[in-house]
Design goal:
The protein is built from eight helices and 49 strands. It is mainly beta and 996 residues long.
Length: 996
């Protein structure tokens, strides 16, 4: 399969490389000249002849030479930072020109809305955008890390500091009751589209759950951030309704870098980064820890320490101290990244090829690695008469991950500070006479995955008639995901005499193949003050997913452990193949009057194979309107008002992200046989009315551009109501099933305010651009019929957020006996669930945002991003073991109750786990302020002034990621949601970029 995979990729890239041709034209002449700006030579200016494929670029000293044809050629001078100029060169052979600095206003920003593009000035929907200048060169492996804190309404959390891990992204809140905790699929995840091709959710790991939080891999991990031109997020109904059943949770649109016109150019980019783990917890030192342990024995009336109390009975050195977080998580992770791209082409045909290699080690104390190789190709062509255009992109990626099987972050925190050294005097793993469970042994158990993806998409358009264009979008996405978990007997103490017969190997294979076809017809009409844009189209998508797993137990020798056929016992799981079919018809009508009033109507009818026979089709639609009041005659003379717009939208979208065959009667093979015959066991019940979750969205917004758009302000309010929730409906036990997945009339409401403020305080030789965004989300469950009598009553409360937890109330410590006291709400004389778990705490976000700044002076530029979040979070009390056990604790646990310390937070130490501590872990003591301000990113860049012809441009840069966090949070990391896993790392990076 892999060989055919590489052949497919080779064919596509071969076609692109052989698709270019040059047309030789007669009667040519040479025009030369110099391009300047502010009386200085300007390099990087593209000069072309209109209607011809002749293109050149200015050198470092601003000079150029161009071969032109025709008697009166028109020359086009283009530079991304300067206004475009058109010069008619009659009989001239020398054309010198000075370009004026261009200030990119709101009306010049073009946004990708998926099926169409729209000027930021004229959009009626809510679309957020991050461009390449904010993404490239950052020391990250997933573009979502670069987006954190830059977009209002978009909350992104990295699930792990392990490279290749997943991300949790919520666009304007959580719309579904389905999460990874209660379902195989998170029902609030957005739709991902790369260059017009839906790529589905990320692969789910079968055996990586102990190292990859939520066992989830984000689909954007397969794309190099340096290959991304822009990332847009569609949020409201006007923007998402055209995606119908897949747009309820927002749409993430990724556009990879495109081919650009101009002379052949080569770009080399290389960086080297160092990363370290961080923790907000300060653990006890040996003196504090030993004192705690001895006090625990004293409290329990034990004067002779047990033989297994190695830390205090003299077996281990009570004067020894090891900071285990530094020892086990303190290795410096090294990342090397190389990016090489080649681009060029004429006025009609251009191409781009980019290759990237990234290799990253980990902070764990062994040489684990994460490798990525990506290859991107793009070709664009337009016919001489400009009626036909064709664009094709191909992305090939291969990700290899080798890592420890079990994240040992928790072990590094809880290990006794006076535990023995990891290695003995001979350099072998130290078991300290069988008194020490050496954490290094766990490193013999490894997890590896191999993730290969091939994506290809094309767009072909032809102008049938004037203002009438037919277009065909198509694409394929093929992905394989193989994983291998090895658990040899060497993870155990040799004294246990556990041989290779107890070793095991677990292997899983998954693949996904999908293709999409989308024919479209577009009509534009302009007359006088009227402008109409009509789009109609259809979508057909087919997905085929396969998966299988095999487990091997017992080997004669660990040398055979990777060959499961050598195992004594083999268990083969079901080999599953699932299909998904999706089809839709969609349309858009956009009407503008006099550049003042805009109405945008979108609609879509969807059909999905994932729903019951009675509900396979559904309709979605939206209407958006905008009033550009700054174009009104009575406001045009206001000098400080450059731009003003009121917009609003209302409509519906849905989600079919629920997995396949959920409505069907399904069966699985039984693990128990009868008379040597394998049987089948029913796993799901048939539900013909299994239907779509639907979200009704409402938004209104005000956009202002002031003082020639040097100050821009946007304020928006939204309300999303998600109903028809797909949840497990309880059934009587006599049915043989505890529940059936069905639509309940439960409704979640997300409301909020979003604010954006951007400005250019200085625009001269010294430039300062600044922007700040603030989001204030609110989430509420407004209805759930039958909630009180269901199992969901312990998780949700009507009128409260779906992010709540229900907890016991800790009143304090009884001064008579030094034990925790919890509120007995039902007065039955005991504290138990669910009746006494009545305290409701919202562990969601109250508000969040970011402040971004860019400064530039001559050849220097500097930028930084501050991310801030106001929230309540689960703290370390939720994870902390009972104080007094043979496990280290944070120094906060020194604040123990006693007759001398009546305000102590923790009850007296004990050598055995107290049942009251279990209640404590489920009490309101485990929720506290998790707010933080983080220096998310800084970048310092210096452009090296060069005068050579070979090197057009060279830059060196320094980057920092997650450098400083200010917080009062009691835990490892306030942003981090996955307790017990390695949090995101602090990274320093140095690199250089050279353009030839």
């Amino acid at each position: 399969m892999k060989n055919s995979y590489y052949k497919i990729g080779g064919i596509f890239f071969g076609l692109m490389l052989t698709a270019f041709s040059n047309n030789t034209k007669a009667q040519t002449r040479t025009i030369s000249g110099t391009v300047t700006a502010s009386n200085k030579p300007l390099h990087g200016v593209t000069i072309s002849q209109e209607g011809s494929d002749q293109v050149t670029t200015t050198s470092e000293n601003g000079t150029y030479t161009l071969q032109v044809s025709a008697e009166n050629p028109i020359l086009l001078f283009r530079h991304p930072d300067y206004a475009e100029e058109r010069i008619s060169a009659t009989n001239q052979t020398v054309v010198n020109i000075s370009l004026e600095q261009k200030v990119k206003g709101i009306e010049e920003v073009i946004l990708n809305a998926g099926y169409y593009k729209v000027k930021d000035k004229e959009r009626t929907g809510s679309i957020a955008k991050v461009s390449a200048k904010d993404i490239e060169n950052q020391p990250i492996t997933n573009v979502l890390s670069a987006v954190q804190g830059r977009m209002p309404g978009v909350s992104i959390t990295q699930n792990s500091g392990v490279p290749g891990g997943g991300y949790n992204i919520q666009i304007r809140g959580r719309n579904s009751l389905r999460t990874y905790a209660n379902s195989e699929i998170d029902g609030s995840q957005p739709l991902y589209i790369v260059d017009g091709v839906p790529i589905g959710s990320g692969m789910t790991s079968t055996y990586g759950g102990n190292i990859l939080s939520d066992s989830n891999l984000n689909p954007l991990s397969n794309i190099s951030p340096n290959d991304i031109e822009s990332l847009e997020i569609l949020k409201d109904a006007d923007a998402t309704a055209i995606y119908g059943s897949r747009g309820a949770n927002g749409v993430v649109l990724v556009t990879t870098k495109r081919a650009k016109k101009g002379s052949l150019g080569l770009t080399f980019n290389s960086s080297y980064a160092l990363s370290n783990s961080t923790s907000n917890l300060k653990m006890m030192n040996t003196e504090q820890y030993v004192a705690m342990r001895k006090q625990a024995y004293a409290n329990d009336g034990i004067s002779t320490y047990p033989a297994t109390a190695y830390d205090v009975n003299g077996i281990w050195d009570q004067g020894r101290y090891t900071d285990w977080t530094k020892e086990l998580l303190g290795k410096t992770a090294v990342t090397s990244n190389v990016q090489l791209s080649l681009s060029g082409g004429g006025e009609k045909t251009s191409f781009l090829i980019s290759y990237g290699h990234n290799e990253q080690t980990t902070v764990f104390a062994k040489d684990f690695r994460y490798k990525t190789n990506t290859l991107l190709g793009n070709m664009a062509h337009r016919s001489v008469d400009n009626r036909f255009n064709f664009n094709m992109s191909t992305l090939f990626s291969k990700l290899e991950h080798n890592i420890i099987n079990l994240d040992n972050t928790s072990s590094a925190i809880t290990l006794s500070p006076n535990a023995p050294s990891l290695y003995d005097a001979t350099g072998n793993i130290n078991w300290q006479n069988n008194t020490f469970d050496n954490p290094l042994a766990a490193y013999n158990s490894t997890y590896a995955n191999d993730n290969i993806q091939f994506m290809n998409n094309f767009t072909a358009g032809y102008e049938l008639l004037k203002n009438v264009q037919v277009k065909l979008n198509g694409g394929i996405n093929y992905q394989t995901f193989n994983e291998l978990s090895l658990q040899p007997n060497t993870i155990y103490n040799p004294s246990l005499v556990i041989g290779p017969a107890n070793s095991r190997a677990l292997q899983s294979n998954k693949s996904r193949f999908s293709y999409t076809l989308e024919p479209q017809l577009n009509w534009n009409f302009k007359r006088d003050r009227h402008q109409i844009d009509v789009l109609v189209g259809g979508t057909y998508q087919s997905d085929l997913n396969t998966q299988g797993a095999i487990q091997g137990y017992g080997f004669t020798n660990n040398a055979f452990i990777q060959n499961i056929s050598a195992a004594t016992t083999k268990l083969i799981s079901d080999q599953i193949s699932t299909e998904y079919k999706y089809m839709a018809a969609f349309g858009r009508l956009n009407y503008q009057f006099d550049h003042r009033y805009i109405i945008n109507i979108t609609g879509r009818r969807d059909g999905s194979s994932r729903f019951g026979t009675n509900r396979k089709f559904a309709n979605f639609g939206a209407i958006g309107a905008a009033w550009l009041f700054s174009n009104e005659s009575f406001l045009k003379d206001i000098p400080w008002l450059s731009f003003g717009k009121l917009r609003a939208s209302y409509g519906s979208s849905g989600t079919d992200n629920i997995g396949n065959y959920q409505y069907n009667d399904t069966y699985i093979t039984s693990t128990l046989g009868y008379n040597n015959t394998t049987g089948l066991v029913p796993s799901k019940l048939f539900n013909p009315d299994f239907s779509w979750e639907k979200t009704i969205k409402l938004e209104s917004a005000l956009e202002l551009g002031l003082f020639k758009e040097r100050l821009n302000v946007t304020a928006s309010f939204y309300r999303n109501r998600s109903s028809n929730q797909l949840v497990g409906y309880q059934l009587p036990s006599v049915t043989g099933f505890s529940s059936v997945l069905a639509n309940l009339d439960a409704t979640i409401e997300n409301t909020g305010w979003e604010f954006e403020l951007s400005g250019r305080p200085f625009t001269g030789a010294f430039k300062w651009e600044t922007s700040i965004n603030l989001s204030i989300p609110r989430n509420k469950l407004i209805s759930f019929p039958g909630l009180e009598g269901s199992t969901y009553a312990s998780s949700y409360v009507i009128g409260q957020s779906v992010n709540i937890v229900k907890l016991y109330h800790l009143e304090g410590i009884n001064p008579q006996n030094g034990q925790y006291v919890f509120t007995d709400y039902n007065g039955d004389g005991k504290v138990s669930s669910p009746d006494d778990r009545q305290v409701v705490k919202n562990i969601g976000v109250n508000y969040f945002g970011g402040w971004n700044n860019n400064f530039s002076y001559k050849n220097w530029s500097f930028s930084f991003l501050l991310q801030f979040v106001k929230q309540q979070s689960r703290n370390y009390n939720y994870l902390m073991s009972s104080p007094g056990l043979m496990r280290n604790l944070p120094v906060e646990a020194l604040n123990v109750w006693s007759a001398e310390n009546l305000d102590g937070q923790y009850m007296p130490y004990h050598t055995t786990a107290s049942p009251l501590h279990s209640l404590f872990q489920m009490s309101d003591a485990t929720v506290s302020d998790g707010s933080f301000i983080r220096l998310k990113n800084i970048q310092l860049t210096y452009r090296i002034p060069l005068e050579g012809k070979l090197i057009r441009d060279a830059r060196i840069y320094f980057q920092g990621q997650n450098l400083y966090t200010r917080t009062k949070y009691f835990g490892m990391d306030p942003e981090f949601s996955s307790i017990g896993f390695l949090p995101p790392l602090k990274t320093y990076s140095f690199g250089m970029q050279i353009n030839f």
